[in-house]
Amino acid sequence: MSEQKIDWQKYLIVFCITALLFITAGYLSNHFSNKKISQLKDIQDKISIDILSSETQFSLLSELSCKNVSGSLLSGELDNLGRKLEWGDENLSDNETLLYLKKYYFLLEIKDYLLMKRISARCGTKAAFVLYFYTTLEECDACGKQGIVLSTLRDQYPGLRVYSFDSGIDLSAVQAMVQIYKIKDAELPVLVIDDDLLTGFRGVEELSELIEKSFKLQGIEESL
Amino acid sequence: MVSPGDIILNIVLFFSVYVQVFFLVTFIENRKKIIVRNGKIKLKDYPAVTIIVPCWNEADTIQATVRSIFDLNYPLDKISVFLVDDGSTDGTWNSIQKFSQRQNVRIFRKTNGGKHTALNLGLLHVQTDFLACLDADSVAHPESLIRLMSWFENYPHLMAVMPSIVVKNPSNIIENAQRAEYYLGVFIKRMLGFLGAIYVTPGPLTVFRKKVFDDLGPYRHAHNTEDMEIACRMQKHHYPIEHCNDAYVYTEVPSTIYQLYRQRLRWLYGFINNTIDYRSVLFKKKYGNFSIFTLPAGIISILAVSFFLGNAVYNFAEFISSKISEFSLVGFNLANTFSKFDFFFVKFNFIIFTTLIIYVVITFCIIFGRRMALGKGGLPLDIVYFFSVFGIVAPFWFIKAVYNTILARAPGWR
After folding, report:
1. Do A34 and A94 form a contact (C-beta atoms < 8 A)?
2. A40 → chain B, closest CA residue
3. pLDDT tens across B328-354, in order?
4. Both A111 and A14 in a single domain?
5. Would you call B28 an interface residue with chain A, using a CB distance cutoff of 8 Å?
6. A2 within a domain of the structure (yes/no)
7. A5 CA: distance to closest CA in chain B (Å)
8. Contact state of B330 with A152 under an 8 Å Cβ cutoff
9. Which of B11, B14, B18, B352 to mutate to test the interface with A (most CBs of A within 10 A)?
10. Are A103 and A175 in contact, with CB atoms under 8 Å apart?
11. Of A39, A44, A23, which is closest to residue B345 (Cα–Cα)?
12. Which of these three, A92, A125, A158, is where a domain ends?
């Protein structure tokens, strides 16, 4: 029986078509990734404008009443942005842009925290504040668990504002907070509630008590 | 930083897409040569054919199988039927005895030794130039044999011609899923036929020239896949095999997941081990596309499915462990699970797009496979069943077949 001939040209053409399909898939993947990053930027811009608006309103407080100061929606937006950035960190490839967006996000959090503290003190708005420091520089199982607990508490207490910070990020504002609360050598995760420093993982019940105490300190009974 | 796992995954993905594109290009190249004959045809000459039916505990199906032989549109005096009972323990022997009075039927009984031994017993008595095997769970379409024989008339160099196999009366999701898969099989076998690279001559009515067995010897055990081994042996000796897409044979298929798992484990184990046995043929130009494309494509598909399974199992385990951890920390929280859906979190990454390409091409192949066998177009619902059932279950027999091969554990027949 005779040997078969192999059409090498066909093998090459198929290789080229496959490579073209691969490049197209890569392009589409990149396109959608960029689209998501631009969505994140849009959210941040919106939050930035909202904060600026709240700050301006606050500066005008002497002329306006407290009920004109908004900001209750902002916390939810920041939380949403935080979750999207976390997802992007795991699933999107543009690490540099994501790092930039994260830094911007932490700055927005700090601005929101400072503003809300002042509004709360002046206007007595329902709010309790938790600063949460975690790390991504090393393996931190307890940080992941703490994140879950805090998400649940946020659902439980609508007036609770949780601000999370990557303690290892190269951002002077965050590093200033790390210095202020002396968490450099502390065991992570670290929580700050009413200026009390809590190191290591803390469960739902313990934090619930502290959060309710924080609400009471402000003379406000949180209705559940 | 790209990990070695990512590099391997991308290479496997690339070649998985390559295989699909190769089939598509072959189809485009040869589409005008694909003929679907709906009516009766005639041959110039009707060579005598012996049909060997090996049976082992086939009392329920053997009657229909033999009747389908008598109903073939082929001169009955040119057909000899050998019914070989391979030590059945049910009523098979009684069933086949009913046919013993017919002039062109011979019945044989032997102790159980496996399908290849039953076929070889039949082979010893074959006196015609052509012979076919017909599994006792299959029913031949009346026009199947004449259409198969027309290939030998038109292309005298051919040594074997296999038919299209379609599922007989599917009645549940598992059987319907296989119906789509068999259409995919029709498409692939036809393309491999064009490439001269068919790797299996299936039990349901593949017709051989007797010369094949005279020259190359009888069937072998071949890890319970004698139909693959004889095809590999023929390819090794440059004996051409073709596929007649419009000659079809209906076959019974497993009706439960477990039966399907057992059957496919046997087939895949056979493929892997026959490939190992014929490794000397791999990547050798003189063995044509069979060596450069068919066997490597099989290996690629095994690697791809194994990788995808590994990935899926890892992701699933991670998801379950995160949910358990969440539950132990905060109890059952419906809000955490469902209320946070956002389109933003839907992944559109590279793997998703390449997988999508593979799915689209497979769907195309199923649709055209159906058209090639039955002449019917359309988008059958069976495709959905196919992707669902095979997507979930196939990886398990892939992994088990590889595992069994490593431990040299041959799976049983049923």
Report:
1. yes
2. B344
3. 887 776 555 555 567 788 877 888 888
4. yes
5. no
6. no
7. 6
8. yes
9. B18
10. no
11. A39
12. A125
Same domain, A38 and A96: yes
Q: Which two tokens stand for residue B10?
A: 């991308």
Same domain flag for A121 and A131: no
Residue from the list A14, A87, A151 with its beta carbon closest to the beta carbon of B21: A14
Return the DSSP state at B259.
Answer: H
Could you write out the DSSP letters of every residue in B278-319?
A: TGGGTT-GGGHHIIIIIHHHHHHHHHHHHHHHHHHHHHHHHH
* Tokens describing residue A118: 């002042």
Q: Inter-chain contact A18–B14, Cβ cutoff 8 Å? A: yes
Kindly state whether residues A103 and A137 are assigned to the same domain. Answer: no
What does the alpha-carbon distance between residue A223 and residue A67 come to, in Å, rounded to a whole number? 20
Q: Give the CATH number of the domain where residue A174 resides.
A: 3.40.30.10
Number of domain units in chain A? 2
Residue at A136 is within a domain: yes
Q: Does residue A95 sit in the same domain as residue A109?
A: yes
Same domain? A115 vs A164:
no
Q: Indicate whether A1 belongs to any domain.
A: no
Q: pLDDT tens digit string along A115-173? A: 888 877 777 777 789 999 998 888 888 888 898 899 888 888 888 889 999 988 999 99
CA angle B206, B264, B360 (to 5 degrees): 90
Q: Do A145 and B288 touch (CB under 8 A)?
A: no
What is the per-residue pLDDT across B110-146, written as a single tens digit (0 to 9) for each?
Answer: 999 999 999 999 999 999 999 999 999 899 999 999 9
Which residue among A2, A21, A29 places its CB closest to the CB of B349?
A29
Determine whether the interchain pair A91/B288 forms a contact, defined as Cβ–Cβ distance below 8 Å.
Answer: no
* A148·B329 Cβ contact <8 A: yes
CB contact under 8 A, A18 and B18: yes
Q: Measuring CA to CA, how many Å separate A173 from each of A47, A110, B102? A: 18, 8, 97
Could you list the residue range(s) of the whole structural domain that residue A88 is in?
Answer: 8-125
Q: Helix or strand or coil: residue B222?
A: helix
Instruction: State how beta strands B241-251 and B138-140 pair.
Output: antiparallel
HSE, CB side, 13 Å, CA atoms: give it for residue A185. 0
Q: Which of A80, A99, A125 is the last residue of a domain?
A: A125
CA distance A172 to chain B (A): 27
> Is residue B240 within 8 angstroms of chain A, CB to CB?
yes
In a domain, A186, yes or no: yes
Determine the pLDDT at residue A3.
67
Residue pair A145/B325 in contact (Cβ under 8 Å)? The answer is yes
B358 touches chain A (CB under 8 A): no
Q: Which residues lie below 8 Å from residue A60, measured CB to CB, with a gap of 6+?
A: none
Q: Identify all chain A residues contacting B357, using CB atoms and an 8 Å cutoff.
A: 21, 25
* CA–CA separation, B49 and B129 (whole Å): 7
From B30's Cα to the closest Cα of chain A, the distance in A is: 13
Whole-model pTM? Answer: 0.82
B33 touches chain A (CB under 8 A): no
pLDDT at A186 > cutoff 90 = no
Same structural domain, A132 and A121:
no
Integer Rg of chain B from CA: 23
Q: Let me know: does B362 contact B390? Beta carbons within 8 Å.
A: no
